[in-house]
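Posting this for the archive.
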Amino acid sequence: MKKLILGLFVLNVSWTSLLAQKFETEYLDSLLKDPFTTLETQQISAVNFTKATGYDFKPEHLNLVGALARREYDLLRERHPLTDADVTKFKKPNGGHVEWANLVTAHRFEGIAKSVHERLRNIYKDKILEHPVRVINNVGGMWAVMEIYNCSTTEYVALFGSMFPQKGYSGLYPFMEVYDIMVDGKMVSHGIETDTTLPVTYEAGEISLLENSERRIYALETGAMMIDYGRGFIPAAMDQGIFTPYKNNKDFASMRDQVLACAKSFLNRIH
C-alpha cells in the first residue's frame, strides 16, 4: 500500500488492484462553497506532486476535479431545471426532432465537460490546452467523442464519452497504464484471465486501472463520460489510439486533429 495525497486529504489505495474512490456530496458542497481556497489548494497539490514524482497528473486528483464538475452541474439543475428553450443552445438539426431524454443527456454531457476543462485549465494552466478539439475515437469497437487536454511522451489526459451505449475491447498497451476516471454514468468491465472475469462496475467518482499489457472487455451506458489518463511511454500507443481508427474508418480529420493537439500540447510543455 502506498500513501497518496489527494488535494485536501489522504487516502490509501492499492496500486496493484483496481482503484475506487467516491466522494460524499457534503464534502463536494463544502469545497464548492469556497472555490478560491479549493483552487489554490489544488494548484499547490499539483505543483508539489510534479516536483516529487516528475508526473504532472495524479488520478485521484483528476477524480476530484471530475466530481466537483458533476456536483456543480447537479446544483445548477436543481436551481434552474431544464426547459424546452435549452435546445436552442445546440446546433439546429437538419430535419428530425430532439427527444426530451436526449436533450437532457446532451445538455448534461456538455455542461459537465465544459466544467471539467475549465477546472483543469485553472489548476494546470498551459499544461491543459486552452481550446481542445473534439474528435471521433474508435478503438476496439468503442465509438466515442474525445477531447485531448494534454499529451506528452510520458502522459496524456483526455475526456472520453458517448451519447449512446457502447461496448468493446480496451486495447492492449505494453508500455503504459491507463486510468479511466469516471466523471458521470457507469462503466462495466472484465478481463480474460480466470481471476479477472468477474464483471466490475465503475460509477461516477470511481477509477479503473488498466495495467500494462492488461486486456479487458468493457461497456458504457448512455451519456457516460470519463477522464482518460495514460502514464508511461505514450508514443507506443499512438498506433492504436490515433492511426488505427484512421485505417478502419478513413477519418482523416480526427487523426489530423489528434496529432496536431498532441504536438501543440508537447510544445506548450517545453516552452
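The radius of gyration is 18 Å. DSSP finds six helices and twelve strands in the chain.
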